[in-house]
Design goal:
Length: 149
């Protein structure tokens, strides 16, 4: 199963930015659908990089950066601790086989190009873009709900 720290980090940061009242890891965990200790683990990574601030025993988490200044690639690198890698290439191909000995060099340029495009895209999208989309989706949902009543 793929790790979901990246999407959960974006969820956490979006909730902090959008919440009109102080929230804590329990509130966030309910929204994410996971346990508060996992939320605190991801929040710890964000705190270590001065993205958020919270104090033990005190309700409320503060976003320390402007959402428009926080690109998604930065968030990815903080929680995954590396550049995005979509594809894994198997390591034990048979060197006696013409396909086995060349498959990595034949496929890697395509995979490397795709990963570079992903990084470029993530670098140009920000937390503010995600927040704007969330607001737009909620407005659309509310508009559709009011027109069917």
């Amino acid at each position: 199963m793929k790790d979901t720290k990246f999407s959960i980090a974006i969820h956490i940061l979006s909730m902090i930015a959008l919440s009109p009242h102080p929230i804590n890891s329990v509130d966030i965990a309910k929204s994410v659908g996971t346990n508060p200790s996992y939320i605190r683990k991801i929040m710890s990574l964000l705190k270590d990089h001065k993205i958020i601030e919270s104090h033990r025993g005190k309700t409320g988490i503060q976003l320390l950066v402007d959402p428009g200044d926080l690109d998604l690639l930065t968030i990815y690198k903080i929680v995954e601790e590396e550049n995005p890698h979509i594809f894994q290439v198997h390591q034990n191909a048979n060197a006696e086989c013409p396909v086995g000995r060349n498959i990595v060099n034949a496929v890697f340029p395509f995979l490397d190009d795709a990963e570079k495009r992903l990084q470029h895209s993530l670098q140009h999208d920000t937390l503010a873009d995600v927040i704007d989309r969330l607001k737009q989706l909620e407005r659309s949902r509310n508009h559709e709900g009011s027109s069917t009543n």
